[in-house]
Amino acid sequence: MRKSVFLVLHNMSHPGRKATFKLISRRQLKSVLKGNINWVDRLPLCLLGIRNCYKDHLQSSSADLVFGTT
User: Fold this and answer.
1) Cα dist. 6→13, 35, 43, 54 in Å?
2) pLDDT band at 22, cuts 50/70/90?
3) What is the pLDDT of residues 42-57, one digit of tens each?
4) Which of 16, 32, 38, 41 has CB 3.0 to 4.6 Å from 46, enough for a Cys bridge?
């Protein structure tokens, strides 16, 4: 447990984290928000997808770390 918390906090400050998050969110947000749709209805689903992505360096998703399961 302690190691998991350390890894989460360490990776939050890692310089590559910001670039990775920008890349993922830009790709997903563009595809979801593009076109003639109501983006307010689609945004929660997009954010859910980002949070449920499996992260290799954590060996789990961020939702797994927060809630214990997805």
Assistant:
1) 11, 41, 30, 18
2) low
3) 778 777 777 777 777 7
4) 32
Residue type, 49: G
DSSP state of 27: H
Handedness of CA 24, 50, 55, 5 (dihedral sign): positive
Structure tokens at 34: 């593009």
Distance CA 41, CA 43 (A): 6
pTM: 0.38
* Max intra-chain CA distance, the chain: 46
Radius of gyration of the chain (CA): 14
Name the residue type at position 45: L
